[in-house]
Amino acid sequence: MKQNILALTILCLCISSIPLSSAQEQTLPCTFRMMDGFYECFLNAVSTPNNELWNFAFTGTHIAGQSNAGVTRLNIQGSRSYFIIRQAFTTFVNLRVYSFTAPIAGNVMRFQADAFQNANMLEQIIINGAGLNTIFPNALIGAPNLQVLNLQNNLLTSLPNSLLDLSYRLTTCNLMQNQLTEIHQTFFARTTNITNINLNNNQLTSLPQILLSQTRLIVQFHAQSNQINAIGRRFLDNLNALTTLNLLGNACVSQNFPNINSGNINDVHTALQNCYNNYGGSVEPRSFRMNLRGMMTLWREDGTLVGRL
Ligand SMILES: *[C@@H]1O[C@H](CO)[C@@H](O)[C@H](O)[C@H]1NC(C)=O
């Protein structure tokens, strides 16, 4: 009996080790071409197995004078992929853009933990409509030069708080059309160069007081068509570069502010009074707020206007 169990155990070990000892390989046939200023590997209608252990080998004929080192964009369209193809970053060592668009219907993607581990040169991640539903907290750690993160039209319900903690160079973050119910107050704490944030068409219910406290260069903030019913009273403090604040279709405010400047910022604050009032009232300091921008505006602690001088 004991021997049988031992034999069975050995048999099981052998079987489970087979895929590891002979990693399966799939070739990905690139069409190499110049497009939009990139020398790219274009992949159309490929389908990868849902198994991270597979090796993916890019093949194809380069145009004259080019090589893998010259490839700056991976452009995958009309395809099925369950995760980021890591071999892209070791094959094309100067890759700037990883783009996966127009996937096969029903595609379900994840950013595996070490998805971008060799992506030192990567500047843009574009994963659109791919059914992306999981992002591991350190997924972007290997892409310190990321400038654009575009995850529009996916199935994200939450984001790891620390996802962008090393993304110092990020300028654009597009999370439009997902199912986010919350965005953590420190999510953008390290992205001090960001100019454009798009959270349109999610299910956010509030905008935390300090969400933008470190993003002093922000020009556009979009959060249309959410369910926002509360906004921290200092949400807009010191955002001197902000020109566009889009909040149409929310619970406490339904308006877009397309031309913000120092002359009309107080009108924005006035329009946001309901939102401010709904935001964790008792934790606000018990004092008047003075806003000295050409004129002085006095608010009561409950957010109602005392007057302007
Ligand atoms: C932030 O932007 C400035 C101006 O474009 C640039 O000089 C600086 O290197 C950027 N910082 C980072 C961390 O990318």
Explain how this protein is built.
With 309 residues, the protein is an alpha/beta fold. The chain has a single domain (25-284), classed as Leucine-rich repeat, LRR (right-handed beta-alpha superhelix). Helices cover 12% and strands 24% of the residues. It has helices at 2-21, 87-91, 265-271, 273-278, and strands at 25-29, 31-35, 38-44, 55-59, 73-77, 97-101, 110-111, 124-127, 134-135, 148-150, 172-174, 196-198, 206-207, 220-222, 230-231, 244-246, 256-257, 289-293, 295-299, 305-308. The strands form five sheets. Strands 2-3-5-6-8-10-11-12-14-16-17 form an eleven-stranded mixed β-sheet, with no helix packed on it. The model is unreliable at 8-21 and 282-293 (pLDDT under 50). Bound molecules: 2-acetamido-2-deoxy-beta-D-glucopyranose.
